[in-house]
Design a protein that fits this description.
Blueprint lengths: L1 H17 L12 E6 L7 H12 L6 E4 L11 E6 L8 E8 L2 E10 L14 H13 L24 H10 L1
Parallel strand pairs: 1-2, 1-3, 3-5
Antiparallel strand pairs: 4-5
Helix pairs in contact: 2-3
C-alpha cells in the first residue's frame, strides 16, 4: 500500500513538472481577435497557421482573425515588426490585464532578425508566432525543451505537444 501511495505521489509530481505553467490571467470571453499592425503581409499567413494550431488544441479557447478591426483597437492581439526590449530576443509579447483578465496583447517581432516563412531554419515566423500566441492566451514557459512553450531558443516547430495543449486547457 505504501508503494502504491508513493508511486502515485511521484507520478503527480512528475506530471506537474511536465505541463507548462499557466498564468493566472486569461481572456474572459475565451476568444481573442488577431489584428496586424505594422507587420509584413508575407508574415500574416504563418501567423494565421499558428493561430489555427492553437485552435485545434482541444480547449474552450480560440483565436480569430478580424480584418475589420483597427490595429489600434483595444481588446485584441496586435502583431508588429519593430524593436524588442531585449535585442537578442526574436520576439516579445506583452499582455495587458484588467480585473484578472487579459484585455489586450501586443506581439512584437524583432525587425533585426533574418526571418523565414518556409520552416527551413530559425527564426521561423510560424514557430515564433506559435510560442508568442501561447503567451497571449495566458500560457507560461515550460522547462521541457520539446515544448513550443519552452523558455529557450526554439528550433522550427509547427505542432503543439501534449504539455502545450494541457497548459491551455488548464486555463480554459
Amino acid at each position: 500500500m505504501k508503494k502504491v501511495i508513493l508511486g502515485l505521489i511521484l507520478l503527480i509530481l512528475i506530471a506537474g513538472t511536465l505541463i507548462a505553467p499557466a498564468s493566472a490571467d486569461s481572456w474572459q470571453n475565451k476568444r481573442a481577435p488577431i489584428v496586424f499592425g505594422a507587420f509584413p503581409s508575407a508574415y500574416e499567413q504563418p501567423v494565421l497557421n499558428a493561430m489555427g494550431t492553437w485552435n485545434t488544441a482541444g480547449s474552450n479557447f480560440s483565436f480569430y482573425y478580424d480584418s475589420s478591426r483597427s490595429r489600434f483597437e483595444p481588446r485584441s492581439i496586435a502583431f508588429y515588426m519593430g524593436n524588442t526590449i531585449n535585442t537578442s530576443s526574436a520576439a516579445a509579447s506583452t499582455n495587458y490585464i484588467s480585473n484578472g483578465y487579459i484585455v489586450d496583447s501586443v506581439i512584437t517581432f524583432n525587425s533585426s532578425c533574418n526571418w523565414t516563412t518556409n520552416g527551413s531554419r530559425a527564426p521561423d515566423v510560424q514557430t515564433v508566432a506559435l510560442h508568442e500566441l501561447g503567451h497571449s492566451a495566458g500560457v507560461g514557459h515550460t522547462s521541457n525543451s520539446s515544448d513550443v512553450m519552452w523558455s529557450g531558443a526554439l528550433p522550427v516547430r509547427r505542432n503543439l505537444t501534449t504539455n502545450d495543449k494541457n497548459a491551455l486547457k488548464s486555463l480554459y
